[in-house]
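Data availability (excerpt). The following record was deposited with the supplementary files.
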Amino acid sequence: MFDIEELLREYDRARAYTDQLWRDLTGDEVLWRPHQESSAIGWHLGHQAHVAHFMVRNLTAAEPSPDPALDALMDAATPESERGFLPVPQRLATFRTAVAERVHARMNDIADGRVGAPGQLTIVAQHLLTALINHEYQHDRWIGEVRNRDLGHALPPHPESDKLTLVDGYLMVAPAAP
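Predicted structure:
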């Protein structure tokens, strides 16, 4: 298992790759859906951050949402047909940044022992960060498919790291390839 500092670097690498997949798109492209039973790139962007916040909040610290109005919309339990009214890309970017800042703050508190049960929470944090990174890349694959196949934009190269592997076509952080 990688340490928290290493995993935070991988989390930032995954988020930077996500940014490469969407930052050059128009607002209309970010909000476009191939059909009603699909999700726009913008939904995936909000969902990635929503899951990160939800996991940190429920597994390590009871923190309020940085944008409570997005919580139900960005939940995977919301049917795809109800994911059509998304906020503008700048609001999604602000949400993503706020969540990432809280992920870093909480994980650094854990790594520095500024929590009640540092040993236990270190193990939780390592697994949580691994799951967040892999979830980010999971949705990056889907964002990339829409970007390339439907919108006609080239894909950026995959990020490089000795901690990344491909599993069933998905980038993943894994201590050893399965």
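Summary of structural features: Strands lie at 164-167, 170-173.
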